[in-house]
Amino acid sequence: MKIASVAALALGAFAASTAIAQTSETSQPDTSADAAETSSGEIVVEGYREQQVRDFLWRSLVETGGNLAKRTDPVCLGIDNLPDTVTSELRGRIQANLDDFQIPLAEPGCDINAVVVFHDNPQAFMNWLASNRPVVFDALYRPERNRLIREKRQVYSWMFIPTAIPDRNRADQNLIGTTLVPTASAAEISRIPQGEPDSISHSFTVVGTEMIDGMSIAQLGDYLTMQILIEFKPGKLEHAPRDSIMNLFFAGNPEDSAPQEMSSLDRALVRGLYQPQRQRFNAGSIRGDVARRSIRTLDDEGLLDQVDD
């Protein structure tokens, strides 16, 4: 199903059902990636290089206190400002991805912890949040928040990680007048056992509605799945291969020149990070392990370019 033209979207005013904070975004795709385009603009993958996989993992992922964060609680998805039929299709695609990755979904009636808002002026909405709901940015240092907001983007995405809150005095504030984020004192944070991952308690994505015309539910659902599960550096995805779904909002025409779904590398990255038997979550070991698993998976699928890097 294709998403209807933006003129048909019933977009509300400023939605107040969102909440909270650290970074993630897309930037201009790497034109040197090992992919080619047909005359119709369709992406044809020629193969990944091992160094390309490692560059993507080392340069695009966010560290928090030396760790890579992941979700440890079931995902409760909230989507605002799309027609009900589109919301239902999009939710179904995201839920199917989570089932495939064996990531649990929360029960109906849960407190939303994965928020997606569609808006015709996403930067204006971000500024509104900064003025009226500043608590949503509490897991960002002020310079990080300012860098995230002040640049005009097609998509804004950030995460809330309790262990990353710079100002512990504000850690007990509720988000937008709700109880979306559990309160956590500095003492409780300090007692988190070593070896456990930093937990993504909430993710937030604000999407410009004018950008989604022509996108399929599969494309948009896969892109949002990645943003919900993994924390990427804003503006630092130039190392993503051109068939990565993270390049979706920078394709000239989402119907034929954009990635049509998550790539093999995208899926290998999620599976590596959320591998149930994982014991160590420091950034170095997890990147190395994800790289090894991803490279092995890509090699098994015949997608690894056997060029000596």
What is the topology?
Blueprint: E1 23-24, E2 35-37, E3 43-45, H1 50-60, E4 77-80, H2 84-100, E5 114-119, H3 122-132, H4 142-150, E6 155-160, H5 186-190, E7 202-208, H6 217-229, H7 264-273, H8 283-300
Describe this entry's structure for a reader.
With 309 residues, this protein is an alpha/beta fold. It contains 8 helices and 7 strands. A 5-stranded mixed β-sheet has the order 1-6-7-5-4, sandwiched between helices. Strands 2-3 form a two-stranded antiparallel ribbon. Helix 2 crosses helix 6. The chain is globular and about 50 Å long. The N terminus is likely disordered.
Total number of strands? 7
Q: What letter string, H or E per element, gives the SSE order? A: EEEHEHEHHEHEHHH
Radius of gyration: 19 Å
- The mean pLDDT is 75
Termini Cα gap: 41 Å
Low-confidence region ranges: 3-45, 168-194
Structural class label: alpha/beta
Strand content: 5-15%
Main sheet strand line-up: 1-6-7-5-4
Overall geometric form? globular
Number of helical segments with 4 or more residues: 8
Helix content: 25-40%
Major beta sheet, specifics? 5 strands, mixed
